[in-house]
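Progress report, Aim 2. The chain analyzed during this reporting quarter is listed below.
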Amino acid sequence: MNRSRKIDKKANVKYPIIEKRKKKQQKHYQEDDKYIRAVFEDRDWHEIKSSDSWAIFKIMSEFVDGFEKLAKIGPCISIFGSARTKEDNKYYHMAKKIGALLVKSGYGVITGGGPGIMEAGNRGAREARGKSVGLNIQLPFEQENNIYIDPDKLISFDYFFVRKVMFVRYSQGFIGMPGGFGTLDELFEALTLIQTKKIGRFPIVLVGSDYWNGLKNWLYETVFSLESNVSEGDFDIFHIVDTPEETVKIINDFYAKYMLAPNF
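Predicted structure tokens for the chain:
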């Protein structure tokens, strides 16, 4: 009798959660279905041409706005990481400290402008009284910009590819904190551009060996050793560390090697 009551009690607790998840999934499916149908909707050439023309102007305006604002800021380091990281997470505290150490070394900090790791990086920079830049992306389900971005250094984008250009063009280094698809997208963009010599060999530092070593091992064992899809020298493009101090030291040592300072 007691056992059946326990089971019923558990069922009552779990059932609303399952139903909530089902409703959330159903809503996503409906939104996806609506989007896919809209893409394949019949449109005449005049409609397509008109729509694409307006998109070009919107893209151009985002590039112009980004170039004008970021060109005045000076040397900065980009910090990539998850929007989902909570304030009590160790990586949040590390990103905050990294932001502060970068500012003390003479750099500004650029993030994606949202919550989580991005907030932590901006917060560290702001509290250390340095430049705190946010390149926010407008999304249907997230994200609002964090409150630690300098008001004159917040830029919002509709297009991911324009935003990524700004990250790469105006950063003197890249720091990858633990994150999801967006973080990996930004990270591999920087890796690819350096590998193909489209940009200079700026330092890339990944923070958290527990998080990143699995990816590195897969790249080495499968992508390099098994399939030869990258070169062994490509693994010198990035470093994996575990502390804020190591992170900033790699960046400072890189520029000291070329006798450059953050005010170059």
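Residues 65 and 115 are 23 Å apart (CA to CA). Strands lie at 76-80, 108-111, 132-137, 154-157, 174-176, 204-207, 238-241. These observations will guide the mutagenesis work planned for the next reporting period.
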